[in-house]
Structures are given as C-alpha cells and as structure tokens.
Amino acid sequence: MLENLPLLAAVNLHKTYRKHAIEVPVLTGVDLEVFAGEFLSIVGSSGSGKSTLLHLLGTLDKPDAGRILFNTERIDNLPAEQRDRLRNETFGFIFQFYHLLPELTTLENVLMPKMIALSVRGWLRQRRTLKQHATELLDRVGLGHRLHHKPRELSGGEMQRAAIARALINRPRILLADEPTGNLDADKGLEIIRLLRDLNRQEQLTIIMVTHNMEIVGNTDRVVRLIKGRVEDATKSPSLLQPTMTG
Ligand code: ADP
Ligand code: MG
After folding, report:
1. pLDDT at 236
2. Which residue in 72, 193, 222, 234 has the most C-beta neighbors within 10 A?
3. Cα pseudo-dihedral 107, 112, 118, 124, rounded to 10
C-alpha cells in the first residue's frame, strides 16, 4: 500500500433526506481524506450531518452523488453482499448509546458479530479461539473482570468499553465512532478517548470520530469541521481547536 494515498476518501459526497415531500439537504459536496494510522475528529453542531457522513463512510448508507474510496477502490456502489462483507472486514462501529444486547453477557456481546457471520459448524469449530480472542479484547479495554456481567450491571464507561471490544472482534482497519463520549461524564469520556488513543497508537488502528464535544478532540491527530454540508479543515480556524485537553 502506498503511504501517501488515503486509506479512506470521500469525494464530492451529496446526501439529501426526503420526507413528506420535504427535502433536507445534509451533505452538499463533502471531500475528505483519511490516512492509515490517523485518529481524525469530525466536529460540527448538532444536526450538521456528522452521523450521516459517518454512515456513508462506513457504507451503512449510500450517497446520492459522489464516491467513497477504500484503498483507492470505490466501495459505495458495490453489490449489497460484497459491500456487507467489505464492511464487516473493514469497519468497526461504536455509538453514543452502545447498542449492547441486554440479555447477553459482555463476552457474548463481543462475540455476537462472529456468531452472526459464521455458520453453526464454523462457530463450533472456531468458538474456542474466538472466545480467547474476545477475552483478550475485553482485557485490552480494561473489562477482564466483567466477562460474565450483563450490560445493566455495567457503568456507562464500561458499556462503551464492551462496545469497543465488540467493534474490534473482526480486526477492522478503521474504527468509526459516533459521539462515543456523548452519554458519559467528562472524566469517563476522557478515559474512553485515552483508550481509543492507545488503540490507535499501539494497534495502528485508524479512527474517525464524530463529536460536537470540543473538549475531547485535543488528543486526536487532526480535526475537521462539518459546516453547511461540507468539510473544512479546522486548522484554518484555530479558535475551533480551543479548548483542548492535555495528557
Ligand atoms: P448530526 O449527527 O450532526 O447531529 P445527522 O447526520 O444525524 O446530524 O442529521 C443531519 C440532518 O439530517 C438533521 O437535520 C436530521 O434531522 C436529518 N436526518 C437525519 N437522518 C434522517 C432521516 N433518516 N430522514 C430524514 N432526515 C434525517
Ligand atoms: Mg449524530
């Protein structure tokens, strides 16, 4: 892979939602390049289209116009089956509200993407190795002592850690994080950002995080802003980068 080419790129993305004959243009020409190993923040006010953009980048939704390129190959127009496979192999997702399944233990939640993807036979053959991997991931995010707890027995920060472990079970190249600290106290949110930073540095995990919380973006490599349907480089408006956090 060529180092100077982006791992993921959005080219002139447009997205309009249509409801009851009302058109809501959300993205009106987004260009964005994300490089391997980067931890990128995308900031913007509520309703500016951050989640929409993240969904398009992760092929959860399709743009009306424009392209998404992964390793220079177009991925937004793949046939559904191929796109689903690429998504599972390439992207991990975490969200503001964790989306853990309440009836399952932490360990089972982390294994869920594998259970869905594998045949019964495949699952039975691999389950020992997969449980080992899931346990290691939960250790890695600091939840080694909570393997058999249900989500309701976990704190918000712990639930987000479990969700991070689940997002990593398929060894994704890119983690897409939608307001991952949005439901947490400032200090717990900071712990999550530090964990993401460690994973980014130690596992060379590329991370794209959207947030409207300016307090947490200081520990990421680069900040861009979504405004009026487009992405602008936040370094061109330095006031945007205040305040930043230390540590
Ligand atoms: P953000 O994540 O920055 O808060 P979103 O991407 O969720 O913004 O939403 C951007 C705009 O698009 C908002 O005005 C929202 O109401 C609208 N929107 C989002 N999803 C849909 C949808 N599925 N149908 C119609 N409008 C939507
Ligand atoms: Mg959102």
Report:
1. 60
2. 193
3. 30
- Interatomic CA distance for residues 162 and 146, integer angstroms: 9
pLDDT in tens, 163-195: 999 999 999 999 999 999 999 999 999 999 999
pTM value surpassing 0.85: yes
> Can you tell me which atom of ligand 1 is nearest the CA of 18?
25
Residue 19 CB less than 6 A away from ligand 1 = yes
* Tokens representing residue 156 in the block: 């918000």
Those residues whose beta carbon sits under 5 angstroms from the ion ligand 2 are 50-51
Homologous superfamily of the 36-65+79-225 domain (CATH): P-loop containing nucleotide triphosphate hydrolases (3.40.50.300)
Task: Give me the residue spans of the domains in the chain.
Answer: 36-65+79-225
86, 99, 112: which is closest to 169 by C-alpha? Answer: 112
